[in-house]
Design a protein that fits this description.
single chain, alpha+beta, 5-stranded antiparallel beta sheet, 1 helix, 19% helix
């Protein structure tokens, strides 16, 4: 999916494009976060379990804009291809 202006704005969801190890935790590829703050040091993100990662400039290249409609569409197409 091609990035568009606003894809990484506060309130938007992103998913990880690869496994990321931070402190004692590994967040797997596809893990979904919400952007809750932005500064010159990068984005601050939080997941549904309230795991927060601050100043993410060092991993921001692995962020993929998350669009649930497109995600569902791709999954349905994949399931249909598997049936045929």
């Amino acid at each position: 999916m091609k990035e568009k202006p606003g894809d990484f704005a506060i309130g938007k969801k992103i998913k990880l494009g690869k496994d990321i190890r931070i402190r004692d935790r590994t967040f797997k590829k596809g893990h979904i976060f919400t952007i809750f703050n932005e500064s010159f040091r990068g984005l601050d993100i939080v997941d549904n379990e309230d795991n927060r990662i601050y100043e993410c400039r060092f991993i921001q290249q692995y962020f993929i804009p998350y669009n649930i409609k497109e995600e569902r569409k791709e999954k349905i197409e994949k399931l249909n291809d598997e049936k045929n």
